[in-house]
Amino acid sequence: MTGIEALIPAELLSLMAENRVPHAVALESSDKAALSECALYLAQWAVCKSGKRPCGECAACKKLKSGNHPDVYTAKTEGKKNAVKISEIRNICADSVLMPNESDCKVYIIPEADKMEPSPQNAFLKLMEEPPQPMLFILLCENTQGLLQTIRSRCSVFKLKAEGGKSEQAQSLAEDIAKALCQSKEIKLVYACAALNDRQSALDALNALSELVRAATAYGITGTLGGENPLIRELSMNVKRRGLINMQQSISTAAEQIRKNVGLSLVGAVLAVNLRYNKYM
Ligand SMILES: [Zn+2]
Description:
This protein has helices at about 10-15, 30-45, 60-65, 85-95, 120-130, 150, 165-180, 185-195, 200-220, 230-240, 240-260, 265-280, and strands at about 25-30, 70-75, 105-110, 135-140, 155-160. It has about 280 residues and is an alpha/beta fold. It folds into two domains: about 10-160, Rossmann fold (3-Layer(aba) Sandwich), CATH 3.40.50; about 165-280, Zinc Finger, Delta Prime, domain 3. A five-stranded parallel sheet has the order 2-3-4-1-5, covered by helices on one side. About 35% of the residues are buried. Zinc ion (ZN) binds near residues 49, 54, 57 and 58.
């Protein structure tokens, strides 16, 4: 496995191997360098001419690596938010009707896709819904919740793995806490919060927990968002909306205490009490 493959979720790797990558893929990560690397890897997969894609060796792969492949286009970002503007989406729409030069499909990479204003997102949505020919759209996002729901529901979302499995560890700590919150036994919640035993991974876990709570809140309102994860559904059913909102406060308080070097065992204990108390608010 190459360095990049270690960042790509197994599900996407197997879709690539089976030639079943959907035409719109949203990659999510807080690591921008990893996002662009993975986007290029996926683009390379799309244009590579060898039997085992991407080979990294053929003319198409080499052209792409040097930034000269005519059928792969990365949208330009600009302005304060450093996002893709509607004029650029219009350029892409105009280009999309032209046949590819060398490969079987055209590839468009949209950086900072979650930072786009609603009007470029809507213009892009139209292209995504009715591409004039085979295309691969790769949307790069820090957080796919920033995409319009209409776009998000038409993309396959893949979260990149953090190096060294750090994000998986944070995610599993966060999920343990969320699971304990859905149950009535206090001791499980206390143990789950006590597992926060190193500052950086505790902060990562709190971030992941905050994401879960945010998704559960959204699910409670829309009945759809985030519903693919059973834990999010469970959380939204077990905790009132007001409680979920208050939990965000407890989570940010805990993060603030960690940054101020308060002892982790105290932070964990206070967090457990606050989360439990908020559940019934
Ligand atoms: Zn190749």
